[in-house]
Structure formats: structure tokens, C-alpha cells
Write a structure and sequence with these properties.
Elements lengths: L1 H44 L2 H10 L7 H24 L3 H14 L3 H9 L3 H25 L1 H9 L1 H12 L19 H12 L5 H8 L3 H7 L2 H12 L13 H7 L7 E12 L12 E12 L4 E7 L3 H7 L11 E8 L2 E7 L23 E13 L2 E16 L5 E5 L9 E5 L13
Antiparallel strand pairs: 1-2, 1-9, 2-3, 3-4, 4-5, 5-6, 6-7, 7-8, 7-9
Length: 439
């Protein structure tokens, strides 16, 4: 109780003391405020403020190692670039000295310098998109200025993609980053030489067209005029002429001009009915037989041609015509001549060992002189169901026979109903390997 009463009395007396000390406290606050202002001015003027901020931003324990490493790397890069300059000017000794100093500072400086100067893939895609937008804007402006002349140029896909590839200064670039060497590192000359191996001496232009479907850089490479010119010369010879009279390019000439196809066989199926003999048990019954056989034609770009007539399965017969010198003695070998949409064939049987012996060993009886036969055939190249140059229609079929006694004979066969046309069928194994490039 005494304590509470004393506090109340002291509270009343404290109010009077507080009123009397108020001017003294205001002087203290003014002094404190002036001290704060002076301290802030000193902080602004002090050069240690920047270092203090940097020490706060940096993580604890670094002690400026990042700055030192970056400065060392920059110094190594500058030394390596100086070495490149000396090497380009022919000063190899000085270049080696700079290279050694750069490697001593940073052992993998060459890889780091390459990564820093390499164009990023995302930047490449963004630049291509910008280029496409620029091309579209240029196209619109050109149409407004001269619609008749520039409309055809901008609508041409080849010219548009050529500008993009030229702007990128490479055939293509990888969509995703990779550690191995990409085909985009090869120059255009090497890519075109590889394409000659793709086409090969067998004129596999189908693989070239599939190659052009990969990207726009491969599309431009596959449209190289020299490759298609060599293909036309190989098909029609040196006197194939020029494409300017009827066609817009060598490629259009090769695709639209009548020609033979070399990546497969032309197959003809012949069916007829042959009557048999009466049975001695039943004189009124006369059997008949359904006969089916196939003819196969294989053409080569240099003019060589193979022909096989057989009743065997197609797989066996196709393999017999794979090589220019067939092992099957039943295959006729010859050459062909292409003129406009007509092709003429001259075929002979293959020579076998012992064919010059005209007498039998046992009975010593002379063998029948069958003579040497030469087959002259002429076809017309036609399209079939929107397939270009896929059908050969018979026009002439003559057989010339030369006997050993010097006599000659000829036979002209009727082609109206006996021989159906040949239809082309692609064979994958014919173009599976490339033995020589297109020349």
C-alpha cells in the first residue's frame, strides 16, 4: 500500500520535472540530427562505400577470385588471338610463343574462345525468322512497284531459299547443339561432291530427291545445275543439246524428256493357252494348258541392256540382272540406242565354252547348225497411270540368223496380240551401293 501511494505522489511530481527538462531534450535531438547529417555526408564522400557495396553483393568466401579468373581468361584470349594474327601473316615462330603463353594461363583457351565466338542456335533461328519477315516485306513492296516482273521471282522457292542459305553462309546448321562435328562444317564443294556419289554412275536421282527433302540447304544443293547436266549427258550422250529451247533447267529436261529408267526392271507377263494331245483312253477329251512366262529388261546408263525370259520367280530373275556381266547363260546381252521416245535394242546370246565344237564326241555325228541369232527390238517409251516413262510398247521384233555355211535368214514376228507391253518396277538392290561418282 505504501508503495502504490508513493508512486502516485511521485507521478504528480514527475510531471513538473518533465516540463522543466523539455528545452534540454530538444537540444539533444538537434545535436543528434546534425550528427546524422554530417555522417551521411561523410559516407557519400568516402571512397570505401563502393567497396563495401561490392563486398555485400559478392558471396562470402570469394575474396575477388571471380575478377581474377576473368581477367586471366581475357588475357589468355588476347594472347591467343595475337597468335592467330601472327600465324595468318606467316610468322609461325611468334605465333607459337603467343599460343604457349595463352595455354599456360588457361589450358583450354582454344575451346573457350571457340565457344564464345560460336553463333548460338537460338540466335540463328531468330535471324532466319527475321530474314523471312524481311523477304516477305520486300516481296510486298516489289509487288506494289512492279507486279508483273517481280511476282514470278519472289514466288520462286529456289531463289528465296538461295537468299536464306547465302545469308547464313553455310549449307545447314544443327537444330540442337552437339559435341560431334556436324555436316554443316563442310564447305559447299565437298557437299556437292558427296552428292555425286549419291547419284553415282547408276544415275540414282531418286536418292538425290530424297536428300533434298531434309532441309532447305540440302534442297539448294540437290538443285545444282552441274549435277543435272552430267545426268543429262550420261543419258542422251554428248549431243544431248541444251535445255533452253524447251525446258527451264537441266533438271526439268531430265524429268520431262522421254528417257529410260535405270533403278529397276521393265517386266512383261505373257499368258497363252496351249492345246494338248488326246488321251488314248478317251478320244473325245482334249486337254489344254495355261502357259505363263515373264520377260525382264534391265538398262544401264552407258547403253548396255540385259534381257531374260523365264518362268521362275521374280526375285531370282531380278538378281540375275544385277550385274553388267550376268552369270546366267540364259540372259541376252546387247546394247540400246535412245532416239526421242523410241529405243532400239540389239541382243545376242552369251558365248559359252565349247560352243565351237560342231561334232559330238561319242557318235561323231554333226550337230544341228542353229546359227547365230541376233534380236532386233524396238520399243516406244510411254507413261502409264501418271508414272513417267514407266511403259515400253512393242513396235518391232525381228530375229536375224546367220548360219555357219554363210546363209542368213530373218523372221519378223507379229506383235499385235502376242506380246504385252513392259511395265517398270523399281528394285532397291540395284542402287543399294555406289561404285563410282557421277562424272
Amino acid at each position: 500500500m505504501d508503495h502504490t501511494e508513493g508512486s502516485e505522489d511521485g507521478g504528480e511530481g514527475g510531471d513538473d520535472q518533465e516540463d522543466s527538462s523539455f528545452p534540454q531534450e530538444s537540444k539533444v535531438e538537434d545535436a543528434l540530427e546534425s550528427f546524422r547529417e554530417q555522417w551521411q555526408r561523410e559516407l557519400k564522400i568516402s571512397p570505401k562505400q563502393e567497396t563495401f557495396k561490392n563486398s555485400i553483393v559478392k558471396p562470402l568466401g570469394t575474396n575477388g577470385l571471380n575478377d581474377d579468373s576473368s581477367s586471366v581468361e581475357c588475357k589468355a584470349k588476347s594472347l591467343f588471338l595475337k597468335g592467330i594474327e601472327h600465324e595468318q601473316t606467316g610468322k609461325l615462330y611468334e605465333a607459337v610463343q603467343f599460343y604457349k603463353r595463352a595455354v599456360q594461363l588457361v589450358p583450354d583457351i582454344e575451346f573457350r574462345l571457340y565457344e564464345s565466338t560460336k553463333v548460338k542456335i537460338r540466335d540463328k533461328f531468330s535471324s532466319d525468322e527475321k530474314l523471312d519477315k524481311i523477304d516477305s516485306n520486300v516481296q510486298d513492296s516489289n509487288k506494289s512497284e512492279d507486279e508483273d516482273n517481280d511476282d514470278g521471282d519472289d514466288s520462286d522457292l529456289f531463289s528465296k531459299l538461295s537468299r536464306i542459305v547465302y545469308q547464313n553462309q553455310c549449307v545447314c546448321f544443327p537444330r540442337f547443339e552437339q559435341s560431334t562435328v556436324h555436316i554443316s562444317a563442310l564447305p559447299m564443294e565437298i557437299v556437292l561432291y558427296i552428292l555425286r556419289w549419291v547419284v553415282s554412275s547408276e544415275l540414282d536421282l531418286r536418292s538425290l530427291e530424297l536428300f533434298s527433302m531434309v532441309c532447305r540447304g540440302f534442297y539448294i544443293s540437290a538443285r545444282d545445275q552441274e549435277i543435272w547436266r552430267l545426268a543429262c549427258v550420261r543419258v542422251w550422250g554428248v549431243n544431248c543439246g541444251n535445255f533452253e529451247s524447251k525446258y527451264n533447267s537441266w533438271r526439268e529436261m531430265y524429268l520431262k524428256r522421254p528417257r529410260l529408267r535405270y533403278n529397276g526392271c521393265y517386266i512383261s507377263k505373257t499368258t497363252y493357252i496351249r492345246h494338248g494331245e488326246n488321251s488314248f483312253q478317251d478320244q473325245f477329251y482334249r486337254p489344254w494348258h495355261l502357259i505363263e512366262y515373264f520377260r525382264y529388261l534391265r538398262f544401264f546408263p552407258e547403253g548396255r541392256v540385259l534381257m531374260l525370259t523365264s518362268t521362275d520367280e521374280a526375285q531370282t530373275c531380278v538378281n540375275s540382272l544385277k550385274y553388267r556381266t550376268p552369270r546366267n547363260i540364259s540372259v541376252l546381252v546387247g546394247h540400246c540406242r535412245l532416239h526421242d521416245n523410241y529405243v532400239t535394242l540389239i541382243l545376242k546370246k552369251q558365248e559359252t565354252k565349247g560352243s565351237n565344237n560342231v561334232y559330238r564326241r561319242k557318235r561323231r555325228e554333226p550337230m544341228q547348225d542353229g546359227g547365230e541369232q541376233t534380236f532386233h527390238i524396238e520399243f516406244e517409251i510411254q507413261n502409264h497411270h501418271k508414272r513417267v516413262n514407266s511403259q515400253l510398247t512393242w513396235l518391232k521384233y525381228n530375229i536375224f540368223t546367220k548360219y555357219r555355211n554363210g546363209q542368213e535368214g530373218s523372221t519378223c514376228l507379229n506383235l499385235t496380240s502376242r506380246y504385252p507391253p513392259f511395265r517398270f518396277s523399281r528394285v532397291k538392290s540395284y542402287t543399294l551401293e555406289s561404285e563410282a561418282p557421277l562424272q
